[in-house]
Design goal:
Elements: E1 2-6, H1 12-21, E2 25-29, H2 33-40, H3 51-60, E3 64-67, E4 75-78, H4 94-103, E5 111-115, H5 123-133, E6 143-147, H6 157-163, E7 166-170, H7 173-183, E8 191-195, H8 196-227, H9 231-238, H10 261-266, H11 274-284, H12 286-297, E9 305-309, H13 324-334, E10 338-342, H14 354-358, E11 363-366, H15 378-384, E12 389-392, E13 406-409
Parallel strand pairs: 1-2, 1-4, 2-3, 4-5, 5-6, 7-8, 9-10, 9-11, 11-12, 12-13
Antiparallel strand pairs: 6-7
Helix pairs in contact: 1-3, 4-5, 8-11, 12-13
């Protein structure tokens, strides 16, 4: 079986390597020529455990090649980005539409087309299906179209692509069956068949559920800070209830899923999706909340210097997509603060090593939950910082061996 996967990013490349690892001939397509050249040399641009090894093996076995152009295949899988439109927060399908149009010259009767990109409900029926029908294909009879969203966690993508249950939503039942057969190549989780529109809404609601619950925790943090209650203690004790699970608060919500997908629902029914929009607003407000609290902490310090620890939205990854930490940095810089950024997982020539970042700093703000930040060199921080203060927005630091350091988190904010 030959599979052509359009988009070689966080989902497309891992998916390609797993199909290749299971004996399929895979062509990974991307418009970025430099990326394609690197992939063919087995150079991976994503920090993801197990990915490089799978790509090496696939190339060695000649089951994978990267290209800027599609090839005739049995299956076409589209994994391109779907950002929001800035005017109405709706799903921007331009990359998906372009990808569909790109594969048309290579399509043959009997092919399967799968959209993995997260898209708004009704997109497959109302927008994607007509693209192929206009070319003379009868969807469900001589071309099989389905939406099969991923549901993986950065840092565990390879493992979860294999073991997580999978939703397969076809335009017709036959489309669902055809697409499900493709994923049975490597998926060990349960494959659940449904309609395309149901699969679309399910994916969006999975991420909306998490976003709303994080918003509740973040709002609780704001309330507790205002009235003088330890928010972290409240969460710990409330979660002792057998049917309560308040999420962890933080500096905001990042990633291509939680920070984006709820808008796809809201844009289609803004009068009905009021809670969804409010949750987005709350989470979007957290970077400013972090900045405001930082300014309160430093109100007695003249010309303060700030060290930022972590800009990735997800711990132990280099993923900065929609990262609230970057928004915190942007606000601080716009307000004239001097900041030094350190992130051991994000490559950026303007970032600093840990020792350089904390030199003469008046505060270190922890914005990513990397393992490296759980056991910082507190003695070094006490020695190098001008004012040894840590503002831990991720509640990472549990034990401080140096009494000269002041630890501020969402439990003891004034």
């Amino acid at each position: 079986m030959k599979i052509c996967i359009i988009g070689q990013g966080y989902i497309g490349l891992p998916t390609a390597t797993l199909f290749a690892d299971n004996g399929c001939e895979v062509v990974g397509v991307d418009i970025n020529q430099d990326l394609i050249d690197d992939l063919n040399k087995s150079i991976v641009h994503i920090e993801e455990p197990g990915l490089k090894e799978k790509l090496n093996l696939a190339i060695t076995n000649k089951n994978y090649s990267a290209s800027t152009k599609p090839e005739k295949s049995d299956v076409f899988i589209i994994t391109v980005p779907t950002p929001t439109n800035t005017d109405d927060l709706s799903c921007d399908l331009s990359y998906v539409i372009s990808a569909c149009e790109t594969i048309i010259p290579y399509l043959e009767k009997g092919n399967i087309v799968i959209i993995e990109s997260t898209i708004a409900p009704m997109s497959t029926d109302n927008i994607i299906k007509p693209i192929f029908e206009k070319e003379g294909f009868k969807v469900g009879k001589d071309l099989y179209l389905a939406h099969c969203p991923e549901r993986v966690l950065p840092g565990k993508i390879m493992e979860e692509l294999i073991n997580n249950d999978r939703i397969v939503g076809g335009i017709t039942p036959k489309c669902s069956n055809k697409a499900a057969n493709i994923y049975e190549t490597f998926v060990k989780g349960k494959i659940m068949k449904t309609e395309a529109k149901t699969a679309e809404m399910s994916k969006c609601m999975e991420n909306t559920f998490r976003d709303v619950n994080i918003a509740l925790a973040n709002e609780l943090t704001k309330v507790c800070s205002k009235i003088g209650v330890n928010a972290l203690d409240v969460i710990e004790l409330a979660n002792k209830h057998p049917r309560v699970n308040i999420h962890s608060p933080g500096p905001g919500v990042g990633g291509h899923c939680l920070a984006i997908d709820p808008y796809f629902i809201y844009a289609q029914a803004p009068e009905e999706a009021k809670l969804i929009k409010l949750a987005r607003d709350i989470n979007n407000s957290m970077p400013q909340f972090v900045v405001d609290k930082t300014k309160e902490i430093l109100k007695e310090v003249e010309n303060p210097k700030i060290a930022i620890l972590g800009v990735a939205y997800k711990g132990n990854t280099g993923d900065i997509r929609e990262s609230p930490a970057l928004k915190v940095c942007e606000i601080l810089e716009n307000e004239g603060f001097e900041i030094n950024i350190h992130d051991p997982h994000v490559k950026n020539e303007n970032y600093y090593g840990f020792k350089e970042a904390i030199e003469d700093a008046d505060i270190c703000i922890v914005l990513s939950d990397h393992f490296e930040f759980k056991n910082l060199d507190f003695n070094l921080m006490s020695e190098k910082m001008r004012n040894p203060i840590i503002f831990d927005t991720k509640n990472l630091i549990k034990d401080v061996s140096n009494n000269n350091l002041k630890i501020i988190n969402y439990g003891n904010l004034k």
